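Dear colleagues,

As part of the handover before I leave the project, I'm documenting each prediction I ran so the next person doesn't have to rerun anything. This entry is a single chain, and its sequence is reproduced below.
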Amino acid sequence: MKAFKRAVSAALALFFLFSLSACSSGPESVVATVDGVPVYRWEVDYLYDKNYNFMVAQSGIDTSDEEQVQSIKENYLEQLITDTAMNLYAEEQGYGLTDEEKAEVDAEYQKIRTDAIAKYAEDHDGDTAKGEEDYLAYLKEQHLTEDYLLQNMYNNKMREKMSDDLYASVTSTDDAVEDYYNTEVESDKELYTNNYTKYESDNASDSYTVMYTPADYVRFKQIYIALPQENLEQMQELAKQIGIDQSQLAVLTKQKGDSDYTVYRLKKEIEANQAEFDSLKQQGLDAVRSEAEEAFNRVKAGEDFDSLVTEYGDDEGMKSAPYRDLGYLCCAYSTSFYEEVQSAALALANIGDTSDLIETEGGFYILELVAKIPEGPREMTDDLRTFIETALSLPSKQEIYNETAQKALEGRTIVRYTDRLK
């Protein structure tokens, strides 16, 4: 059941989020046609590149094996052929868009376009003309045009209309939803109890596939102002040596006793290294203290915490999803944080509360409480119920999709040029 749950989000894309369809020209060669509608080489490459990291990390694909790569690309080509046939079929079945529906899609694209240009303009002091140039240049790099994107959105809208009709009869009963929920809660309770590291990894994105929280957790964001890199590197080496020496000291002490000269000398070496470690730590803290205090004062003055994370933060994890958006998970049993940070995070009482300036051997931290998650089952919200209903209906929808795809392909003139994929 767990493996099935993990695959739900990806599998749903087959039915609701349709792939790029072949409907515009490009510089690369045509690798297939469906009733004369071309599929281009770059479209296959797009899917291959988009899924590359997953293929390597999760599927064990050997991308240096030309036969494997060719086989994968041929599979993507078949997806694009099916998508193209489905677009043609949907239009033939009367699901073409009305002028009003096209206008809605046009407005949606214009918002996407405006937001993208504004984002690019940030690199040019808000110059929207240059932002637009960058946006169009990006599309060109991806072998896309605005007409292509808009047509693809029309196709998606048309396919959604058809899907609504095709899947209208697929429903899940309340009893089935409750059974699924209860089963997954019990499964996750067994999986995550006393396995906090796995819970924190699996639920980093607040996934509906995680139905049980094994302890009282908080989510927090942090501004981390690190010690100078040179200090951190030297401290790391010293800490490593101190650990080795302490292990050796325990053995020697047991073998020779406290009064042995070798034991005495090793103790002195450990003390010297610890003193040097403490000195490097203090030097490093002093070097960044004014910056940390400046950030702390701005937090206390009520400035936007996320903006200050971007401006001051040295934590790479806070610069990308999911931690940038949701924060880190932490409970009393977590092992990923400095003790000072962990204690401060768990002491925050209300959402939005911020901590004092926290001093650690790695630098300074300022925390903001984002959420509190009580131990126990995930709350059954409307969104969770929808997710479960979707998961339960997936097999039936897959069967309907496969039948419809077969109908869409029947009688089509399909020409493949798979040698052009090499």
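Residues 261-300 form the longest helix (40 residues). Confidence is low (pLDDT under 50) at residues 1-27.

All the best with the project,
I.
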